[in-house]
Write a structure and sequence with these properties.
- The structure is a single chain.
- With 71 residues, the protein is an alpha+beta fold.
- It has a single domain, classed as Irregular (HU Protein, Chain A).
- Helices cover 45% and strands 17% of the residues.
- A hairpin with a 6-residue loop joins strand 3 and strand 4.
- It is elongated.
- The two termini are 28 Å apart.
- Keywords: DNA condensation, DNA-binding.
Length: 71
């Protein structure tokens, strides 16, 4: 399910208007993003958790140039 499908489902289930649901979903995602940018973890009990993780650099091939690059 993508964002558009989520908005459509909530609109159908609640009877709220699409702009209201779209705004609520946008605000939820923006709030999660801001918390992660501030270094906080986000835990939504019964749904999932979000956290920023640092990954070690690795080599990969650029499909456009076929060059090996550090990712």
């Amino acid at each position: 399910m993508n964002k558009t499908e989520l908005i459509q489902k909530v609109t159908q289930e609640t009877g709220l208007k699409r702009p209201q649901v779209s705004l609520a979903v946008d605000m939820l995602l923006e709030s999660i993003q801001q918390a992660l940018q501030n270094g906080d973890n986000v835990q939504l009990i019964g749904f999932g958790s979000f956290e920023v993780r640092e990954l070690a650099a690795r080599e990969g091939r650029n499909p456009q140039s076929a060059r090996i690059e550090v990712l």
